[in-house]
UniProtKB/TrEMBL annotation:
Source lineage: Bacteria, Bacillati, Bacillota, Bacilli, Lactobacillales
Name the UniProt record assigns to this protein: Multidrug efflux MFS transporter
Superkingdom of the source species: Bacteria
Subcellular localization: Cell membrane
Location (main, coarse): membrane
UniProt cross-references to PROSITE patterns, sorted A to Z: MFS
Annotated InterPro entries: MFS, MFS_dom, MFS_sugar_transport-like, MFS_trans_sf, Tet-R_TetA/multi-R_MdtG-like
CDD domains for the chain: MFS_MdtG_MDR_like (cd17391)
Provenance organism: Enterococcus hulanensis
One protein family per Pfam: Sugar_tr
Family matches, as SUPFAM superfamilies: MFS general substrate transporter (SSF103473)
Length: 415
């Protein structure tokens, strides 16, 4: 018992304390963005009288509006983060999200809901600034493992959000779910205010390098820009099945049983796998090179998405979704480790905010691809098209990281 107590209350370096608080913060931010997924359409249905076609239209607009605004405003917040510090941006994002998500429980019509979803996009940036703050404060030799651990917070929050939302809404109702989430995000604001410490020297506006000069000064600009595109395709691949997964499950279950609960569980399974595997792959990346882990993860993802098109029951789908979580554990932490390694610390806020813009764009593009493909080729066609998307990503990553992989390999040989 005393051993556990000592472990829990031992003095820790600042970067470790920040990691603990920001892991919880990014986990809750991830949940805040995704918990409405299982019941958003049902909530919209209570705000008016809509036909099925109108309901699909308003649900699509409401879902994508947040990510659309996030993609646009992220670079502006990133610039401010490099100027004023990342902690200030964490406080802005967590307090803003707490207020906006709580207000969603009070809306009287779909237009007010869309307005608040747009506003939620304005208050994005918690995850990208948490990543930038941890990345710049962590010893370089531990960056892969630490960013791998931090990434599990956001990824797991995003993937468990639908399950948490579905369960909470079924117990407390739709409106109260928004107030509960808002309260938890207010707690994230308080924890970030009290326990996150940042050593930051403010940069005068006139002393800041323009974005063009930052990219010109990069040793491997094609690697960093390539990672932005890779992030977009990872998100698009993961989200291409979002619009159809519950409908696909309904088809596999022949319209019998508790489809909502099964959909929530299967949507959340990857989060559990990611939580277990990401820190381990982060450590592996520190040892063998993050670009190698990224390549392995993409090949694995491609092999996992393909058989989803031919499953005959939900348990096979659940197993393959677990494997998707393992591939996710390879991907985003490796991308973040590569961005950290090949970017200047002074511009970390902006670099990570650009990455968040691409991530948000992937969240918009993915469901659009899934909806379009499923309407032409059926649900099973979505998994084939997603595998093709992952293959494209692998070829891009291989080309963009070839130079650094060769350099890493030759350095290891000399040692």
């Amino acid at each position: 018992m005393s051993k556990i107590k000592n472990k829990l209350f031992q003095p820790r370096p600042t970067w470790q304390k920040n990691l603990i608080v920001l892991w919880f913060g990014t986990f809750m931010a991830g949940i805040g963005f995704s918990l409405v997924m299982p019941f958003m359409s049902l909530y919209i249905d209570t705000l008016g009288s809509y036909s099925n076609q109108q309901l699909n239209f308003w649900s699509g607009i409401t879902f994508s509006s947040t990510f659309l605004i996030t993609a646009i405003v992220s670079p502006l917040w990133g610039r401010l983060a490099d100027q004023k510090g990342r902690k200030l941006m964490l406080l802005r994002a967590s307090l803003g999200m707490a207020i906006v998500i709580s207000l969603m429980g009070t809306v009287g019509n779909v237009y007010q809901l869309i307005g608040l979803r747009l506003l939620q996009g304005v208050f994005s940036g918690y995850i990208s600034n948490a990543t930038a703050l941890v990345a710049t404060g962590t010893p370089r030799e531990k960056s892969g493992q630490v960013l791998g651990t931090l990434a599990t917070g956001a990824v797991t929050g995003n993937l468990l959000g639908p399950l948490v939302g579905g369960v909470t809404a079924s117990i407390f109702g739709y409106r109260l779910t928004f107030f509960i989430t808002g309260s938890i995000l207010f707690l994230v604001f308080l924890l970030s205010l009290i326990f996150v410490h940042e050593e930051f020297t403010p940069v005068e506006k006139k002393d800041m390098l323009p974005a063009k000069e930052i990219f010109h000064s990069l040793k491997y600009p094609h690697v960093v820009i390539g990672m932005f595109v890779t992030t977009l395709i990872i998100q698009a691949s993961n989200n291409s099945i979002s619009p159809i997964i519950s409908l696909y499950i309904r088809q596999l279950m022949h319209n019998h049983g508790n489809i909502t609960l099964v959909s929530g569980i299967i949507a959340s399974i990857p989060g559990i796998a990611t939580l277990i595997a990401a820190p381990r792959f982060g450590r592996l990346g520190d040892r063998i090179g993050s670009e190698k882990v990224l390549g392995i993860g993409l090949i694995f993802a491609m092999l996992v998405f393909l058989p989803m098109a031919i499953v005959t029951n939900v348990w096979q789908l659940a197993f393959l979704r677990f494997l998707v979580g393992i591939s996710d554990a390879c991907l985003l932490p490796a991308v973040q480790a590569l961005i950290t390694k090949y970017s200047p610390q002074a511009a970390a806020g902006r670099i990570f905010s650009y990455n968040q813009s691409f991530q948000a764009a992937g969240n918009v593009v993915g469901p659009m691809i899934g909806s379009s493909v499923s309407s032409i080729f059926g649900y099973r066609g979505v998994f084939v098209s997603t595998s093709a998307l992952v293959l494209t990503n692998y070829l891009l990553v291989h080309r963009n990281t070839k130079e650094i992989a060769e350099k890493y390999h030759s350095t290891q040989q000399t040692h």
